Amino acid sequence: MTVAWGSSKRGRARTGGMTSSRHVTFILFAAILSVPFVSIYIGYAIGVYMMPANIELPDSGVIIGPLRLNYTWYNTHNLSVTFGGRLGNNMFQYAALYGIGKANGLRPLITRQSALVAIFPHLKTRVTSQRRPGDYWPKYREMAPYRFDERTFNLNFMTNIELVGFFQSWRYFDHVRADVRKQFTFAAGLELEVTRFFERTQRLYRDGMYYVRGDAAKSPLQYVGIHVRRGDYLHQNSIEKGYTVADSGYIERAMSYFTTKYHNVIFVVCSDDMQWSRTHVKSRTHLVVYSPFTETAALDLCTLARCNHSITTVGSFSWWVGNLAGGETIYYKDFPKRGSWVASIFKPGDYYMPQWITV
Ligand SMILES: *[C@@H]1O[C@H](CO)[C@@H](O)[C@H](O)[C@H]1NC(C)=O
Ligand SMILES: *[C@@H]1O[C@H](CO)[C@@H](O)[C@H](O)[C@H]1NC(C)=O
Ligand SMILES: *[C@@H]1O[C@H](CO)[C@@H](O)[C@H](O)[C@H]1NC(C)=O
Fold it and tell me: In this entry, which stretches build a coiled coil (predicted)?
């Protein structure tokens, strides 16, 4: 073999015998070394093959470990919540109750006296005539309002528990969000009244001077709900805590965001201060309709939930407007007031939905 090689190569060939014996040693050494690695790999492959399939998650985009989220096979003990505040607060409390119950294997239980029972007939919870079912149960108090408290996903499921707090964070029920959205389907009577309102509005639009002709008329009609929270947020003690009220400049900016983006826009305004809203929320170019429901929270929420997009202001009612309507949601970024008590506990990432925008 080496005969045909040039003299310079012959030198290398002479040392070839030594190299090949080193090769053998090396291959032997590598073979011995590889034994544990190969065994580990085979063990891993067998393990992967034998592993049970991933559990099917209730909704996509879950933000916590999936294995923590289905303890429904226990479900021996009850979980309740103290309802405090009004509709928006109660909805946060119910949604958290449901999400925390699912994550721990506790069964939600609420009082029949809660306003939610009549407004949302599809809630998946047991109801009791007791005014406060968890009165004598151990309490779980939230760390602070306006932020997610992850310890709620590790409760003791061998005891009844009463949740105490406001639980204003989407993270408490993100793992069951489509389920919660379905449960917040309004009673048929409310829906009917709101349907009539939308029919009247549509007629007003078609007959009025706002009717868009030509190409623009072909683009779909977009209802933009505007919720203006004022009321108690104008009181001195609310202001001191850091609650702020959206100014008309913010609402104008938000309205022009939508009118720039879409051709056919109708604004639907609901508020706990309709008088202010009628004089301050206006448009020269687009139809603005005001809620006829004389500040009835459930009808207002049902109306705004039907809209395609939302302009929200401050408070949990406004939060649910954005959440139920889906579509694009604009929030008021000057809440809470800097340096205030609310600002010291407020965690924007836990409170505002990640896809919401501000103008
Ligand atoms: C959770 O467990 C229950 C009861 O075992 C089962 O019916 C349900 O499908 C499970 N849900 C998920 C999301 O795996
Ligand atoms: C949970 O509540 C239901 C309905 O009130 C009750 O029948 C049941 O005994 C409660 N479970 C426990 C473990 O207390
Ligand atoms: C906008 O909302 C209206 C009323 O709920 C609905 O009928 C319509 O389909 C929605 N339009 C779009 C583009 O989603």
Answer: none
Contact at 8 Å (CB) between 167 and 91? no
Q: Is the pLDDT of residue 54 over 60?
A: no
DSSP 268: E
User: How far apart are the C-alpha atoms of 358 and 270, rounded to whole Å?
Assistant: 20
Residue 274: inside a domain, yes or no? Answer: yes
The neighbouring-strand residues paired with 288 are 267
Whether the bond into 336 is cis, omega within 30 of 0 = yes
Higher-confidence residue: 22 or 112? 112
Query: 124 with 204, same domain?
Result: no
**Going edge to edge, which strands form the sheet with 309-311?**
287-290, 265-271, 222-228, 309-311, 329-330
Give the β-pairing of 265-271 and 222-228: parallel
User: Which residue's CA is minimally distant from atom 13 of ligand 2?
Assistant: 77
Q: Report DSSP state, residue 220.
A: P
d(CA 257, CA 300): 23
Q: At 307, which CATH number? A: 3.40.50
Q: At 48, which amino acid appears?
A: V
What does the alpha-carbon distance between residue 188 and residue 194 come to, in Å, rounded to a whole number?
10
- Section 99-106 average pLDDT: 90
- Please tell me if the CB atom of residue 109 comes closer than 6 angstroms to any atom of ligand 2: yes
Instruction: Say yes or no: 229 and 319 in one domain.
Output: yes
pLDDT digits (tens, 9 = 90+) for 244-291: 888 889 999 999 999 999 988 999 999 999 999 999 999 988 999 999
Does one domain contain both 239 and 322? yes
Q: How far is CA 54 from CA 66, 141, 154, in A?
A: 9, 33, 21
Residue numbers of the domain that contains 299: 188-358
| Residue 249 in tokens | 């400049």
Q: Is 128 in the pocket of ligand 2 (CB under 6 A)?
A: yes
Single out the residue of 352, 354, 283, 350 nearest to residue 148, CA to CA: 350
Reported pTM: 0.79
129 CA distance to ligand 2 middle (Å): 13
